[in-house]
What does this fold into?
Amino acid sequence: MDMDNKQQLDDLLARTALGDQSAFDLLYQHTSSLLYAIAFKILKKTEYAEEALQEAYVRIWHNAGEYNSEKGAVLTWMGSIVRYRCLDMLRKVKPEESIHGKSEYIIMEDEDPGPLEQALMAGDARALMDCIESLQEKQRRSILMAFYEGLTHEQLSRYLSVPLGTVKSWVRRGLDKIRECLG
Amino acid sequence: MVNGVDDNRYDLAAEYVLGTLRGNARVQFERLLREDAEMRKRVHEWESRLFVLSDGIEPLKPHARVWKRIQARVAPRSDMHKSRIGWWRAWALAASVMLVVLSVTTLQLLQPEEGSAPAVVVLSDESSRAGWVVHADYDNKQLIAQALQINDPGEGKAFELWMLPKDEPPRSLGLLPLQGKQHLGLSADKLAVLQRSGALAVSVEPAGGSPTGLPTGPVLYQGKILEI
It folds into this structure.
């Protein structure tokens, strides 16, 4: 995304709420690369990620008037719409064509710090990253994999080779700590 | 057990946002969200906490066909934008239709409830230039005014927003921002006046607002209340 000016996104969304197609076009240009990347990380297939993105932007167009700042930053609001759309799609995928193949997990095994490291560089992510770094390694991994890859408790349990109950408590305690840490 | 329930609810909001709340539990939670403003607030808090993680994702440009498909889906509204005049004409038509709808929905407005149709007002000057967009957020009993392009009202002056109820004097809703957003609280009393109003107007007033409780300066912007 080459525009991180929140005020500009606010203005574009406000104009989108009025049915201004050119504002919506700009909003798409400035946000779609990030939102598509989010969708692709979760869904792993171009076809699915494109569908999720398309559905999400149609929803953003129709619901732009319902946005207000209490729903978080514009980008957070839009990104959440995309993520929830992706999670809905995962739910509908039949088990035999499960998007999350073992190979994807092996890539995760490298503990590629890419996203995390880059996030560390962004100023407004610093506080969250400090909190996430303070988590136990297992809690941290569970939460990051769930967020970036859209994994369920069951998938995390299989991948990390620990009982379901253990994974659930890692996630829960990790989230509790993040909440306490961020206040 | 109130605390216990609260703790449990908090976890649900967090796991919903994280994505680990799945299957039927997720569907049921979404149903609950539609009715529970407090829970929606918690979800938004968690979205703001966790979404920063996305800062670290390498952007990936989607294929041009995606935008074409999106455009095709939103095209019926976009047709109105072929000319600005056309848009305003369509808007004026919508406004007159909505005046009828407003009278029908009076009861709903009197007792705002979850899921009330949001209302919007575009405050425009004589040359149809939009200065503010005002959204009614009935769930949280407030108006949200977003400044678009505003000329400075002048030294020691401010823009004040007024409701125009039929056969009654204007009632103030507060001062408008010159840039960004401003939340304007809606008391039950103001809400009742608002539902008797078909339009809002903006006047130029001394910095703290009109000293008389009525507009004292020129009215520069007006807009009809539209439900969307």
Remarks:
- Confidence is low (pLDDT under 50) at residues 1-10, 77-89, 99-117 of chain B.
